[in-house]
Design brief:
The chain is mainly α. It has ten helices and no strands. Helix 4 crosses helix 5 and helix 7 packs parallel to helix 9. The protein starts with 5 loop residues before the first helix and ends in a 17-residue tail after the last helix.
Length: 177
């Protein structure tokens, strides 16, 4: 007669789920520590110093950096915009601090200024700030101005207009009535 011991099988069954939970918890530990590490890298002091050096009042710089999710991006955006465009520092701060992608706003302004002849830097900054995808917008402005021979102002207006659809640029297969 064969005797089966139920006691060892009862102890073996919970070992598999507990081991799986242990491995999952061990794998999740580095993921849980990543946001805490990223928060420590935020440099509010550097942001405020850069904005003050750019010519912005200390109180305005402190408020802008304190309200920013990524203060280093805001301050670098302002300094990059001021290095290529002739705008008021407060206008650059307004555009950079109120945008979701301040680093892309600076890239947009600098790429348009480096490629095209710009008469009004304030308009370029305003249009780059208004765009949802500033880098793509600057590629549109530069491409349209180069290919179509438009002035910078006309290219800015054409690329920002959501309702603008070019006509007769490709053959159509829709019958004409």
């Amino acid at each position: 007669m064969i005797h089966f011991s139920r006691f060892p099988k009862l102890l073996q069954w919970p070992a598999i789920p507990f081991a799986a939970i242990g491995f999952a918890a061990a794998a999740a530990l580095p993921l849980m520590s990543a946001p805490a590490h990223a928060i420590n890298d935020v440099n509010y002091e550097g942001c405020t110093d850069e904005l003050i050096d750019a010519g912005i009042a200390a109180d305005t710089a402190a408020v802008a950096c304190a309200l920013s999710l990524e203060p280093s991006q805001v301050s670098s955006c302002v300094t990059n915009v001021l290095s290529v465009a002739s705008v008021v520092p407060e206008d650059a701060l307004t555009a950079c601090s109120r945008d979701r992608r301040p680093d892309e706003v600076a890239t947009c302004v600098s790429s348009i200024h480096q490629t095209l002849a710009v008469d009004d830097s304030q308009e370029v900054l305003l249009h780059c700030h208004r765009s949802l995808l500033p880098q793509r917008y600057s590629a549109c402005v530069v491409g349209v101005a180069d290919a179509a021979g438009y002035a910078t102002d006309e290219a800015l207006a054409r690329c920002i207009a959501a309702g603008y659809q070019p006509v007769d640029v490709a053959p159509t297969y829709i019958p004409v009535n």
